[in-house]
Design brief:
This protein is α+β, with helices and mostly antiparallel strands and about 180 residues long. About 55% of the residues lie in helices and about 15% in strands. The chain contains 9 helices and 7 strands, in the order H-H-H-H-E-E-H-H-E-E-H-E-H-H-E-E. It has a 3-stranded antiparallel beta sheet with strand order 5-7-6. Strand 3 and strand 4 form a beta hairpin. Helix 2 crosses helix 3. The relative contact order is 0.09.
Length: about 180
C-alpha cells in the first residue's frame, strides 16, 4: 500500500476518526464508536472500507489497526521521493544550507561564524540592491525565514551584507545574481 492511498483513505473524516480511535487503544466497534462519537453504523462502514484496503483487521466486532503498514508506506514514499534541489551550485555551501534551511525556512541560526556567513549570504538575496528598506519591512522579510529577526538583522549588518543608517537598511554586500 502506498502513502497516497493511505492519505486518500484518511481524507474521509469518519475513517480518520476510526483510525485515531484504534491507534489510541479502542479494540471493538463499540469502543471506537464511544471514542470517536460516530454511530455504530458509521464505524462499521468505515471499518469495512479500511479492512478492504488492508489497514484494519476486522473479526466480527473486534478491530485491529495494522500500524506497520503506515511505516512501510512512509519509508517507501521517502525512498521514491526525488532528491531535494540544491540550494547552491557549490557543494560545500549546499551542505551548509541543507543543514540549516528546510522548506524555505531557516531552522536555526548557525553558531559557527563560517557557516553563519554562508547562510547570511544566501539570505541577503531577498533584498534588492539599491533599494532602501525601513526596519519594519526588513523585519517582515526576515520573519519569513526565522522568528529571531533582530539576530538576523544584527548578523547581516555585522557581516557587511546590510548597512543601516537612521532606521533604514540597504543591501551593501553579498553576491548579486545577474
Amino acid at each position: 500500500m502506498d502513502a497516497a492511498t493511505i492519505a486518500g483513505l484518511l481524507a474521509d473524516p469518519a475513517r480518520l476518526k476510526v483510525v485515531a480511535a484504534l491507534a489510541l487503544g479502542a479494540g471493538t466497534i463499540e469502543q471506537v464508536s464511544a471514542a470517536s462519537g460516530l454511530s455504530l453504523k458509521d464505524v462499521a462502514l468505515a471499518a469495512r472500507r479500511l479492512a478492504r484496503a488492508g489497514l484494519v483487521h476486522r473479526d466480527g466486532h473486534d478491530l485491529a489497526l495494522h500500524t506497520e503498514r503506515f511505516g512501510a508506506a512512509a519509508r517507501a514514499a521517502a525512498e521514491s521521493a526525488p532528491p531535494p534541489e540544491p540550494l547552491s551550485s557549490d557543494p560545500a555551501e549546499d551542505a551548509v544550507l541543507s543543514a540549516f534551511v528546510r522548506d524555505g525556512r531557516l531552522v536555526s541560526i548557525p553558531a559557527q561564524r563560517g557557516k553563519r556567513r554562508v547562510v547570511l549570504q544566501h539570505l541577503v538575496r531577498i533584498f534588492e540592491p539599491g533599494v532602501r528598506y525601513p526596519e519594519r519591512e526588513v523585519n517582515a522579510l526576515l520573519a519569513v525565514w526565522h522568528p529571531d529577526v533582530a539576530a538576523l538583522r544584527r548578523y547581516l549588518v555585522d557581516e557587511g551584507l546590510l548597512t543601516r543608517e537612521a532606521g533604514v537598511y540597504w543591501r551593501s554586500g553579498g553576491y548579486v545574481d545577474v
